[in-house]
């Protein structure tokens, strides 16, 4: 696939526009990129764009961010990938850093704290909604075999339990599910057979990386499925292991990540701000988004071969349901992070809005924030 010669200023402007308007997470980002690249400008054909989506889903990390980088790479190579990726990421990052400074400074007014508490209370319902949206295609991928579907259920349950109970080990559970599926579907090669000792040997070395940078790298480079699967990975580190944030502050951070444009991974910048101020936020963002640039730029020419690899396909068939289970299980610690009784009422209302009334995520979070403002105005605790 050769690259087109689209001007860098055009890429900066168009990808920046998507970065400013991309409220609603990956579905919105994909729709905007398709409308731009396929329908309006005809830089890519429809089949090529769909193949790009499939290829990005083979990689760990934020799939919609990687799709933005990849499509810009297709149009202008290395320089296009850098310009397009930064234009897509930076608008939302600037917004969420400003909001982090406002909400974590300790001087936010009561109505703002109420809005954050209301939106934060709804986050657990948003997680379940995100997981439910992924189940049908993953279940269909398992096929009609009872044994395949039994394994799917097992991987889903393992991911859910890991997210709910053992946050630090979630990455290993996701990798284990993928390796088990390789063993079940394909005669394991020597490389697959020896993956376990390599993984275990690498764990102590990884643990030596400074805590904040390891947390950011982990959610950017090792989180298959992107989006909400990063939440349980971050929550245990940020709240329980290192105590950079309280449960309530973490809920607010996740809500801010949903309410701002751009990828959900921006939440890691709020964690970085809580841990080490503005410098920590920028470093966390660099370590979280950096792997996406490296993987797409270095591996873009090989994605077709990667998609056809039976070991990769088997790994994803196992890791996929574990990811969905992890997103579902993340709702448990997120719900338990609520501090006030009225927040559980907001959570219930958000669940009805998302799962029954089929409302959008952004509108549901805005409604939850307004309920939080109402709670403050009638004198209920919000801090």
From TrEMBL:
UniProt topology in membrane: Multi-pass membrane protein
Taxonomic superkingdom: Bacteria
Keyword Cell membrane (UniProt): yes
Cellular localisation: Cell membrane
Annotated TM spans: 81-104, 116-135, 155-180, 192-217, 270-299, 311-334, 340-357, 364-382
GO function terms (MF aspect): chromate transmembrane transporter activity
Keywords for the protein's UniProt record, in alphabetical order: Cell membrane, Membrane, Transmembrane, Transmembrane helix
Entry GO CC: plasma membrane
UniProt-listed InterPro entries: Chr_Tranpt_l_chain, CHR_Transporter, Chromate_transpt
Stretches assigned to coiled coil: none
Main subcellular localisation: membrane
Family classification: Belongs to the chromate ion transporter (CHR) (TC 2.A.51) family.
Record's protein name: Chromate transporter
């Amino acid at each position: 696939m050769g690259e087109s010669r689209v001007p860098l200023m055009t890429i900066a402007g168009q990808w920046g526009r998507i970065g400013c308007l991309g409220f609603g997470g990956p579905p919105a980002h994909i729709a905007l990129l398709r409308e731009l690249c396929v329908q309006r400008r005809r830089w890519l054909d429809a089949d090529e764009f769909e193949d790009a989506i499939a290829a990005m889903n083979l990689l760990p990390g934020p799939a919609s961010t990687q799709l933005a980088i990849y499509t810009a790479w297709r149009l202008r190579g290395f320089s296009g990938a850098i310009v397009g990726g930064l234009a897509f990421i930076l608008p939302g990052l600037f917004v969420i850093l400003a909001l982090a400074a406002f909400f974590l400074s300790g001087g936010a007014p009561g109505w703002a704290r109420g809005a954050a508490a209301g939106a934060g209370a709804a986050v657990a319902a948003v997680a379940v909604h995100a997981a439910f949206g992924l189940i049908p295609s993953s279940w269909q991928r398992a096929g009609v075999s009872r044994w395949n579907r039994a394994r799917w259920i097992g991987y889903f349950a393992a991911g859910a339990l890991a997210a709910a109970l053992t946050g630090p080990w979630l990455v290993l559970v996701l990798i284990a599910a993928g390796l088990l599926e390789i063993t079940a579907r394909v005669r394991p090669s020597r490389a697959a057979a020896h993956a376990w000792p390599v993984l275990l040997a690498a764990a102590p070395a990884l643990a030596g990386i400074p805590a904040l940078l390891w947390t950011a790298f982990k959610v950017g480079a090792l989180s298959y499925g992107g989006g909400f699967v990063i939440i349980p990975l971050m929550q245990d580190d940020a709240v329980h292991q290192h105590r950079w944030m309280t449960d309530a502050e973490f809920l607010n951070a996740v809500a801010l990540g949903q309410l701002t444009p751009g990828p959900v991974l921006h939440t890691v910048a709020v964690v970085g701000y809580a841990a080490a101020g503005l410098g920590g936020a920028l470093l966390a963002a660099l370590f979280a988004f950096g792997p996406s640039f490296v993987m797409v730029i270095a591996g873009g020419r090989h994605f077709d071969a990667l998609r056809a690899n039976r070991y990769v396909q088997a790994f994803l068939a196992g890791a996929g349901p574990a990811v969905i289970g992890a997103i579902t299980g993340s709702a448990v610690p997120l719900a338990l992070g609520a501090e006030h009784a009225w927040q559980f009422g907001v959570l219930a209302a958000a669940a009805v809005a998302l799962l029954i009334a089929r409302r959008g995520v952004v509108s549901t979070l805005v409604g939850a924030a307004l309920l939080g403002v109402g709670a403050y105005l009638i004198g209920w605790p919000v801090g």
